Amino acid sequence: MTTRGAGVPPEDVTDTPGRTDARPGSRPADRPRRRDAAATRQALLQAARNRFTRLGYDRTTLRDVAADAGVNLALIKRYFGSKEGLFKAALATAPRFLGGEGEFPGDPAALAEALSRQLAAGAWAEFGEHPVLMLLRNSGDEQVDDLRRHALEDFSRQVLASCGATSAPEDEDLLRAQLLVALGVGVAVLRSTVGLQPLAEATSDDLLGPLGDIVAGLLTSPGDRSGQAR
Length: 230
Prior knowledge:
By secondary structure, the protein is mostly helical. The protein has helices at residues 37-59, 62-69, 74-80, 83-93, 108-118, 142-162, 171-193, 204-219, 222-228. The protein is globular. The protein starts with 36 loop residues before the first helix and ends with a helix.
């Protein structure tokens, strides 16, 4: 007699660490808890993002991720294939730093407002630290480092798009966008590692004015910059 309920997929009964099946005749309380496959995958992604953000790629182990999620280690391979696959999925599901779909800033003022919210103290309480930190720590894996670099490049291009860029940007424009990205990364790093005041506790309202000035200075059009030159 099988111990699995009819129609229950194997992954729904093997996500308890150290347990792979129920013993024949065991009481219901002794059986591995069942979990929806989508919920299990989400729990693994959340645990992975937290680990990658705090520890980086190299120091994050799949065993620790599985333990944090409360599931069997084998499920990581089932859902993601490998540690690299898990990292790639974690990147893909990390918050979009400039807003969700349909909320992308449409002009420099909206960009400054979005950045002020996302760089404010406590903005990412569910992560413990700003999720951009997941992209910073060296992994020692060339393919993973390519993923990190592409993610930061994409973010830079998102910044340009928010200011109306519709074609391949000039190197100077891309550099200006990357400088703004570097500023955001620096805020996350200083808050995480140093606790520099008043930056560490700056609210969205505190940041909005200075960020508005920086965005306007970096991302105005070349013609506007010429007109502002003294």
